[in-house]
Amino acid sequence: MALERRLATGIRIAEQAGALALGLRPPPGAATAATLKSAQNWLTEADGAVEDFVARALAEAFPDDGFQGEETGNGRAGQLRWVLDPIDGTSNFARGGDRWCVSLGLIEDRTALLGVLVAPALRETFAARLGGGATLNGAPIRAAATTDLHRAIVEVGWSPRVPNASYWKLVADVMNAGAAARGGGSGAMGLADVAAGRIDAYVEMHINVWDVAASLSILAEAGAHVSPFLEGDGPVSGNPILAAAPGIADALAGIAGFTV
Hints:
Number of domains: 2
Strand order of the largest sheet: 4-3-5-6-7-8-9-10
Radius of gyration: 17 Å
Number of strands: 15
CATH superfamily of the largest domain: Fructose-1,6-Bisphosphatase, subunit A, domain 1
Helix content: 25-40%
Structural class: alpha+beta
Distance between the termini: 30 Å
Number of helices: 8
C-alpha cells in the first residue's frame, strides 16, 4: 500500500512537472536559451524550475523520504530516496524537440522500488512499481520477443565521460553483430523504449543514476534483462548499462562486454 500510494503521487507530481516543462520549452531552432555545464551537457531554465517544483512537492507528500536531483545533488537523506532527472534529453528540449522526459525513481539502498517517466510532448507516461508490472498510459507493456541480433534495433548511448574511440568501437561491434544502431538523445527514453518493445536494447558505457532511476523499475517489471547498475559505485558515480529483450541479452552482453 505504501508503494502504491507513492507511485500514484509520483505520477501526479511528474505529470505536473512535465506540464511545467512543456510550458517553458523553447521554440524549434538553435539552443540560444540554454547554457553548457560542459561539452554537450545542456542546462535550461526549465531544469531548475522542474527540480525545485518536484523537490518541494515530494517533501510535502513524504517528508521522511530522501531526495536527489541532478542539478542540486542530495537534497535530503532518507531510507527511501527519490531520484530525479528534471529533463532527460535536454539537448532535444533546448532545440524545441519532443524527445525528452521527466524521470523520477524511488530507490531503497540498492533496490529500485518504482519509476515514473513522463514525456509530455509525446503525451506518454511510463510507470512501474516493484511486483506491480509496467505500464504506458495505463496499459501493460512488455519487452520485445526478439531472439536474433540480425533483427534487432539497439540504441547506443553516448557519454562525454567515455573516449569517442571507445564509443565508436561499441557502435561498430553492435552493427557488426547484425543489429541496427541508433541514437535518440535521451537515455531515459531509450531505456523506456526497450521496456515497451519499441527497440530491442539500449547500451551505454557510462550513465548517471538520475538518468536510469525511473527506468530500472520499468524495465524490470516489463521483463527486460538489465545489467546490475546499482552495484558498486552506480548510485554515486554512475555505471555502464545494458538493457535488452531477454532473447538477445546474453548475445549482446558478450559483444559489449557487459553483464546481465
